[in-house]
Structures are given as structure tokens and as C-alpha cells.
Design a protein that fits this description.
Blueprint lengths: L5 H12 L5 E3 L16 E11 L2 E12 L2 H15 L11 H22 L12 E11 L3 E11 L7 E10 L8 H4 L5 H15 L4 H7 L15 E2 L3 E5 L14 E5 H4 L5 H6 L4
Parallel strand pairs: 3-4
Antiparallel strand pairs: 1-2, 2-3, 4-5, 5-6, 7-8, 8-9
Length: 276
């Protein structure tokens, strides 16, 4: 197994195995007294894996089947964009067809790339592989959060590449929330909590030790390449590999509790968590 990627592959494999084909309802936080309860977002999980002499692919998605119409359509569109980011036409409309088409498309891509590299068939332990899952993680009364995990390895590399990030959708209109939707302009007040989260992730005590690990100047207040997202406990920050540190340190992530981050949230975010 390629070094550095082993733990991530274990995580991805466990999540893929948990992705059955049964309908599930997102756990919805009971709304505050002033909040109207949102329709329950109901999803089906679709999983498929395929392999041939050129490589292997796995995919798992939680596909919205019912719920607030705008949110359902927005999330479906997001899932399609993640699976078929290079396609603008002929995208399958049924989720079962989507996961099959995704796997076959990626296997065909492996075939093309390996032939261009004049490699042809490869030894099984060095075969290209990809895995992606797009999973519903949590719902509040006015929002839901999906998380995306993606891993890829191409023959000959020292290790694979992976991404992991969350996306929060507003249920009433399906808006995919950006950093600007959730956070006020980031200043020293908020960044002290972000640096605390990074110190806890890296298990260091001081900002000086933290800066020694990071390859970017933390005084510039670097933010994750993907927007923070909502959880029941607080706002989650998930830096991608290379955002702030070398690959060997992974992808720093942490949650800032709502009672600490509330002063730095926008009106939109406060409304979503029931603090309007």
C-alpha cells in the first residue's frame, strides 16, 4: 500500500462499506421554538465498484429522494457535478445509472492514460485506483451538510492524492453556502480560534511550533481552500493537504463551538443555527 495513504484508504473503505442501498432520513435537530421545522430530507444510498486490468474504482452517494424541492435539486446538481465534472451533456439522471457510469468512465480514463504512458496492463498492487463518496452527514432545521471524500492513485506515484471537505446547503432555497455566507471578514479575533484548532490538530503548544510545521505565513491568516461548514457542534474547518502544511501532516481539521464563534458569524449563519 502506498505510504501516507493507508489510513485514508481505510477510512474511505469503511465509509463505502457502510453505504448500502437503503433509504435513510437525515437526523434533524429539533427546531428552536422560533424556527419553522423544515421538511425532512430523505436520501437513498447508492454504491458501486468496478475493476479491470487497468485499475479499480469505488463510488458511494447519498442521493436526495424527497424534501424541500429547491434543496433536493441543488444537492442532486452538486452530486452530478462531482461525479461528472468534465461532462456537460449526457449525464445520467438516475442515481443507480450515475454510479455505474462514473466507474466505467474512470476505468476508461485509466485505460487511456496508461496507454499514453505506454504502460498497458499493470501489476495489481500498482494499478490505478479511485474512490469517491458524497455522504449526507447532518441536518439542522434550516440546513444540511454533505461531506465529500475522494482518493486517487496513478501508477508510479509515491502516494495517492485525496481531498475531504464539507458543503452546507440552505434548505429553503438550496443555496450552497460559501465562506462569505457564513463568516464575517476574518480578523485576529476569529483567527486565534483557528490557530488553536490547528495547534490541537498538530499537537503543539505554541504558535511558534505551529509556524515551524506550516509552510505558509500564518500571520496572513490562510483559510481552507474549501469553505467551512456547519455541524451540530459548531463550524467545522477542514484544510486540504498542502493548504498550510506538507503532505505528511495530512489535512488539518477542527470544529469551533458555536458559543465561541457566534460573534464572527454572519446574519445568514446565525439565522440558520437559530440565533436570529
Amino acid at each position: 500500500m502506498r505510504r501516507h495513504a493507508f489510513l485514508y484508504i481505510l477510512l474511505l473503505s469503511a465509509c463505502l462499506l457502510s453505504c448500502g442501498t437503503g433509504r435513510r432520513k437525515a437526523p434533524v435537530t429539533p427546531p428552536a421554538e422560533s424556527q419553522p421545522a423544515a421538511d425532512t430530507l430523505t436520501t437513498d444510498s447508492f454504491r458501486y465498484e468496478a475493476e479491470n486490468e487497468y485499475g479499480s474504482v469505488e463510488v458511494c452517494i447519498d442521493y436526495p429522494m424527497s424534501g424541500p424541492p429547491a434543496a433536493v435539486e441543488s444537492i442532486r446538481s452538486f452530486i452530478r457535478s462531482q461525479l461528472f465534472e468534465h461532462r456537460t451533456t449526457d449525464v445520467p439522471s438516475h442515481p443507480d445509472e450515475m454510479v455505474h457510469a462514473y466507474c466505467q468512465e474512470r476505468l476508461s480514463h485509466f485505460d487511456k492514460v496508461l496507454n499514453q504512458m505506454q504502460i498497458g496492463r499493470v501489476v495489481r498492487d500498482e494499478a490505478p485506483e479511485e474512490g469517491i463518496e458524497i455522504r449526507l452527514q447532518e441536518c439542522g432545521a434550516r440546513w444540511c451538510t454533505y461531506e465529500v471524500y475522494r482518493y486517487s492513485y496513478l501508477t508510479g506515484g509515491a502516494h495517492g492524492e485525496y481531498t475531504h471537505y464539507g458543503v452546507t446547503f440552505r434548505l429553503r432555497d438550496g443555496r450552497r453556502l460559501t465562506e462569505a455566507d457564513l463568516l464575517q471578514p476574518v480578523g485576529d479575533g476569529l483567527y486565534k480560534y483557528i490557530k488553536r484548532g490547528m495547534r490541537e490538530y498538530f499537537d503543539v503548544d505554541t504558535d511558534e511550533q505551529l509556524q515551524d510545521i506550516c509552510h505558509v505565513d500564518l500571520s496572513l491568516r490562510p483559510m481552507p481552500s474549501h469553505a467551512p461548514f456547519l455541524t451540530r457542534q459548531g463550524v467545522r474547518f477542514h484544510y486540504s493537504i498542502y493548504d498550510v502544511c506538507p503532505f505528511e501532516w495530512g489535512d488539518p481539521s477542527f470544529t469551533i463551538p458555536y458559543d465561541e464563534i457566534k460573534p464572527y458569524l454572519t446574519g445568514t449563519a446565525l439565522e440558520l443555527i437559530g440565533e436570529d
